[in-house]
Automatic annotation (TrEMBL):
The chain crosses the membrane at residues 28-49, 61-82. Keywords: Membrane, Transmembrane, Transmembrane helix. The lineage of its organism: Bacteria, Bacillati, Actinomycetota, Actinomycetes, Propionibacteriales. This is PH domain-containing protein.
Length: 169
């Protein structure tokens, strides 16, 4: 099940059931990016194939560009197949990809960013008290305002649980 297309009720149920909710990149969007890169890579491929007899400086530059585009295609294909980068929400906090994390104890808030450019998609910025920021794109979660409200609710629950645990001791 693609959690990024679900609603808050499904997220709560999954968090209660498994202890975490994983928002993988929605495959249709990753596939769209892969198609764009393949189309863009087709232009230098045709150029390099046409000029195979002439191995001058421009040929070398085009081959280097082709290698970069090929690497981008491979990367996007891996993202497409494995649904990375993922957003994981669990009892300890929020993690984006495998290296960026904001623990609930450092959660400061969320901000919905809607770029003025028509080419960029909206994203959610999660800030921590230490100044770390996670930028969650719509490729992971379709309804960013609902996601922001859900994270705020979870943070409130975590703070209440932590406060009641401290008061009991």
């Amino acid at each position: 099940m693609v959690m990024g297309n679900q609603d808050i009720g499904a997220w709560d149920a999954e968090l209660h059931r498994s202890g975490r909710v994983i928002f993988a990149v929605r495959r249709a969007l990753a596939f769209g990016g892969l198609v764009v890169v393949l189309v863009l890579a087709g232009i230098p491929i045709l150029s390099v194939l046409r000029d195979l007899d002439d191995r001058g400086t421009w040929f070398t530059i085009r081959v280097a560009l082709l290698a970069v585009l090929f690497a981008a295609c491979i990367t996007l294909a891996v993202l497409f197949l494995f649904g990375h980068p993922r957003v994981t929400v669990n009892a300890t906090g929020i993690r984006f990809a495998w290296w960026r994390k904001v623990p609930w104890s450092e959660f400061e808030g969320t901000t919905l960013v809607t770029p003025s450019s028509g080419y960029a998609a909206p994203y959610l910025t999660i800030t921590s008290t230490r100044g770390r920021k996670l930028h969650i794109p719509q490729t992971n979660v379709e309804d960013l305002p609902a996601f922001a409200a859900w994270l705020t609710k979870l943070n409130t629950q975590h703070r209440l649980k932590t406060t009641s645990t401290l008061n009991m001791s």
